[in-house]
Every structure is written in structure tokens, then in C-alpha cells.
Amino acid sequence: MEDRYRVVVSELEAAEALASFVQGSSRDSFNRPETVDYSTSRTLFRIHGKAEQEERRMRRVLANRESTRQTIIRRQAMFQWLVRKASELSEENGNLKKIRKLAWKQRDSLKDRNVHLKVV
After folding, report:
1. Which of 16, 18, 25 lies closest to 47 in space, CA to CA?
2. Partner of 49 at 20 to 30 A CA spacing, among 29, 84, 107, 115?
3. Dist CA 42 CA 49 (whole Å)
């Protein structure tokens, strides 16, 4: 375990050196807290914990984005299906109205014929 702590400390120092190099300042002006004991497991947990928390947060954000994308796609597909279904039902409704109109005409024709047969 002590080796892991040393690796973490050396990685942290390397990251600080890289950050100060990128910022164009010296390593001493990086504002590293001198009171932190990097050999304790609690501090190590905080160091790794924040990184893990950020990683989990980013994974959650990405998962939420993917879920939102899939929901949008699903809703679009449902909307397109509903538009097609409405069109089909409208067409079927028109056909049924034509059939009803023909049935009323046949009924009227039969009614007139029945009246004519009763008279004769």
C-alpha cells in the first residue's frame, strides 16, 4: 500500500509540474497545500475520490445524454407512426362513409320498390 501512495504522490507532483509548466509559472507558485500528508489513506481517498466522483459524474452526464437522444428518437418514431395511423384511419373513414352512402341509397331504393309493390 505504501508503494501506491508514493505512486499517487509522484503522479500528483508530475501533474502539478505539468500544470505549472503550461501556465508558465514555477512549481512553487502552484499553491499546493503544504499541510496535507499524502501518505494517509484518508487523503488518498480524497484525491482519488474527487477524480472518481468527476469520472462518475461525466459518465452519468454522457449516459443521460444518450438516454435523452434515444427518447427523442423514440418520440419521433411514435409521432411518425401516429401520423401514418391517422392518415390510414382517415382514409378508412372516407371509405366507410362511401359504403354508408351506398347502403342508404340501396335502402331508399328498396323502400321505394316496397311501396310500389304494395300499391300493385
Report:
1. 16
2. 29
3. 10
Q: What is the DSSP letter of 34?
A: T
Residue-wise pLDDT for 57-111, tens only, equals 999 999 999 999 999 999 999 999 999 999 999 999 999 999 999 999 999 999 9
- Region for 4 from its dihedrals, namely left if φ exceeds 0, alpha if ψ lies in -120 to 50, beta otherwise: alpha
Cell of 20: 505549472
Residue 108, phi-psi category: left (phi > 0), alpha (psi -120 to 50), beta (remainder):
alpha
Q: Per-residue pLDDT for 20 more than 90?
A: no
DSSP class of residue 27? G
In the chain, the percentage of residues whose pLDDT exceeds 70 is 67
pLDDT of residue 30 exceeding 50: no
Give φ, ψ of 16 to 5 degrees.
Answer: -65, -40
